[in-house]
Structure formats: C-alpha cells, structure tokens
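Fold sample X.
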Amino acid sequence: MRKIYYLALIALVGLVFSSCQQSTPTFYLQDLQGLWLENGDSTEGHFVRFTTEKSDENPFLLGREWTTSDDKHEEDLIKQRNKDGFPGNGWFKYDLKSDGTLTEIHLMKNGGAEIPNGVGFAVTKLTDTALEYYEKENKSWKYKFTKVKE
C-alpha cells in the first residue's frame, strides 16, 4: 500500500511540473504571407507584402515593402522589376522558421548590382490579423503590423 502512495505522489509531482512548463508557439509560413500595414495608417503607411514567389535562393521567398508617404506603391516596385529584370530597392528575400525566426535579406540596387542586407527578427505574434516581431540585434526595434484584407 505504501508503494502505491509513493508512486501516486511521484506521478502527482511529475504532473504539476509538466503543467508548469510553457509551450513554445509554432509559426507557419502561410500565416505570414499576404499584405501587412504597420501601425494601421494607410494614408502614410508602411506596407509589407510577403509573397509566395520563390527567390533565386532556396528556401527564400520574395517580399516587397513600400511607404505611401514617400509616394511609393506596390505597382511601382513591380514595374521597376519588370523593367530591370530583377528585384531591387523595396524588394527582399525572406524565410520564416517554425520557431519564429524571420530572416529578411533586403535587395538594393547599386549600379545594377544587388547588395544583400540581412536582418534577423524574432516573431512574437502571428495571427490572422496581427504580426509582431523585433530585431534580434537591437531588441528595442519592435514592429507591429495589421493584416490588410484584399
């Protein structure tokens, strides 16, 4: 009888400790894809689109970003790419791991050459309507986006 109480006590302690552990959220690439608006102001907004278009480098996909207050629009980026034959300013390559590691490699044109500018982020929230992440190198640089319904 004593052994049964002892085993029950061990099982209860194990159950308490296992329920105290926090689970790590899992993030999915398809939830990230689409059009996002930073801080909710579409008149002077900073937009980011995570596309399903594959880049020239696996596993990266292509994305683009623009700010309407600079009189830039998504159509301008697409026209420039069609004219030049490759993505340039405003375009980036990205990848999202299930642990929330988001990598963006921004593409910048400099005399026709692409100059990669890699930035690592940690995603803290990704839902149907909200995206939040911070830059790993400078944790005070936080970004909050709202998904735009198209």
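Fold sample Y, listed below.
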Amino acid sequence: MSKTAEEKTTKMTTPSGKYTYANGRRKTAVAKVRLYKGEGKMTVNDKEATKYFGIKTLIGLINSPLKMVGKLKEFDATVVVKGGGESAQAEAIRHGIARALIEIDPLSKTTLKKAGMLTRDPRSKERKKFGLKRARKSPQFSKR
C-alpha cells in the first residue's frame, strides 16, 4: 500500500452540525477545540487521538476534563493543534476542552477550576542571555 493511500484510509470523517469552540494554550502549543454532541470520539489533526498520541497517559490527560464533569461519552471533539511537543500539545487540548465545557455548562466551572484545568500554565522556556551558554549556564571559569 502506498503512503498516500494509507493516509487516506487513516483520515477520519469530521462531525458536522452545531459545535462549541475554544482555544487552549501551553508553552508554544495552541489547540483549537470543537466539541460536538456525540459518543466520545476524539480527532486530533485529522487522526484518531490514540494514534496521534502514542502514550496512554496523554490520552488520559486529554479526557480528564470530560471525566471530571461526567460527560466522557456525550461529546465528540475535533482538534487542530500546532507548536510545542507532545506533552504541551496534550495539555493545550485539555485546556481547550475545559474552556469549551464551561461554555456548554457554566455550572461545571467550579469543578474544573478547583482541578486547575482552567488556568493557563504560564511556565515556558526562559530566554538565552548574552555571555552565557543557555539561560543560566555560564562558561567554565578558569582562574589561571
């Protein structure tokens, strides 16, 4: 099977109809999340979430806001995510799903806020300073 034919078979059909939209961010990753009424399917960049993220813990991280509210099998999600690494992308998706859930059901805000899923994680890489090798690492000091 050629690569193009394989790519066509792995692409999923996108749900249509009304959806709730939200953005999620972490480090340099940005996730655009759309939540549809459905049965719990997750699509990330036109691939199934389990195939896009090889690590099961990241899939659990993505589904955590839905589990917390108790609506894991009620929504389908299509996500377009760019930038960052796998872990940052998964956290950006989690942030976006949590924001979209609040627009659907404002009463779930207290539950998600206590779990810390609505707060954007501000930690990011520190910039490199001149005269240093990295952000804080200095060149080796020689006395003589």
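Sample Y note: The chain has one domain: 14-114.
Also: DSSP finds five helices and five strands in the chain.
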